[in-house]
Amino acid sequence: MDRAIKIQVDHLNFSYRGNRVLRDVSARFEENTITAIVGPSGIGKSTFLMTLNRLWETMPHATMKGEVRINLDGRFSNIYDHSYPLAELRRTVGMVFQVPNPLPMSIFKNVAFPLKLAGFCDKPAVAEKVEEALRRAYLWEEVRDRLTDHAMQLSGGQQQRLCIARALILEPQILLLDEPTSSLDATAAAVIEELLVNLKKRCTILVVSHYLAQVQRIADRVLELADGILVPSLLNL
Length: 237
Known about the structure:
- The chain is of the alpha/beta class.
- The protein has helices at residues 45-51, 86-92, 107-117, 123-136, 140-143, 156-168, 186-199, 212-218; strands at 5-16, 19-30, 34-38, 62-72, 75-78, 93-96, 174-178, 204-208, 221-226, 229-232.
């Protein structure tokens, strides 16, 4: 059965300090799938992810041209249109980084933080959403009795799942992950892999990875970034 297109990228060009990083990239990403993006280090894979939620706009000396459209309720919206609200984009498109970045606060407050920023202050509802996000991130059973502990007391794998839970609490339709297991041991990485396969039932997932065995285990499609161009990888064969 054909899936609907969730993300549509057209003629995307990106430069940093005058150096062209992405060259006329056009791609389509189907909903409820995992797309892995591979390629050499430093070639622009993380940058490409950041064009999908406009996070690159915090970078000085960076410029972008092209269109990124997201399918919301059957209608494509250009996220670079001046009328597109950035807060809504960040709710729709969550991102998890290579190195876990828990906030300097408790486990509970870490996960609840995006709700606080969104002005959501119903305490019983917040507690319910925190639990649901931690369950989706396969972390609830490990932390349910220590939610007031500082997040930095968690292991590396737990911290990464905490960051995933924090990204999930606003129920994003798209989840971007930049090398989410690179700092983890094999056991912790396997948990993240299982988590991502489960999450694609609810999200469209793009993941940057250097681990080809991992890509082959979890990805529905693999794209390779080379010389600024995004093309189907031989791993799809």
